[in-house]
Amino acid sequence: MHRGARQASLLGRKMAALDAQPQILVQYLVLRKDLSQPPFSWPAGALVAQACHAATAALHIHRDHPHTVAYLQELGRMRKVVLEAPDETTLKELAETLQQKNIDHMLWLEQPENMATCIALRPYLKEEVNQYLKKFRLFK
Question: In principle, which of 21, 34, 54, 104 could form an S-S bond with 118, CB 3.0–4.6 Å?
């Protein structure tokens, strides 16, 4: 085999192997940071509950989407990333952007206050949604 043809063949096999690797789906959540601080001062458990509500609702609403089906087939390998939004206005602006860009998500509203607390996206490949989330840092 000609050297160039052999290199092309090896490159082709490497690329095919990369394509065969499973793509990693991630469920992103964006939780309001201000709820953990005065004047709200919500306890950690209440904040975690908001994220859980939003995540569960997003998975349920989009349960028939192929990404959600694949995500739920391997429960031990689920990946979630929790980001923080500084306040309700920022969270609602993100929800509006996601709506405009047709990014499937759930804006969780705490009742009876009707207060936006968290956004959960359905599972996505990181590359599909990174541009909308890159300004948010990990929740601390």
Answer: 54
- Identify the band that residue 98 occupies on the pLDDT scale cut at 50, 70 and 90: very high
Q: Which of 95, 104, 39, 33 minimizes the C-alpha distance to 68?
A: 104
Distance CA 123, CA 65 (A): 9
CB neighbour list of residue 132: distance below 8 Å, 6 or more residues apart: 94, 97, 98, 101, 103
Output the pTM of the full model.
0.84
Query: 120 and 95 in contact (C-beta within 8 Å)?
Result: no
DSSP string, 62-125: TTTSHHHHHHHH-GGG--EEEEEESSHHHHHHHHHHHHHTT--EEEEEETTTTEEEEEEEPPEE
Q: Would you report the helix, strand and coil content of the chain in percent, each value rounded to 5?
A: 50, 20, 25
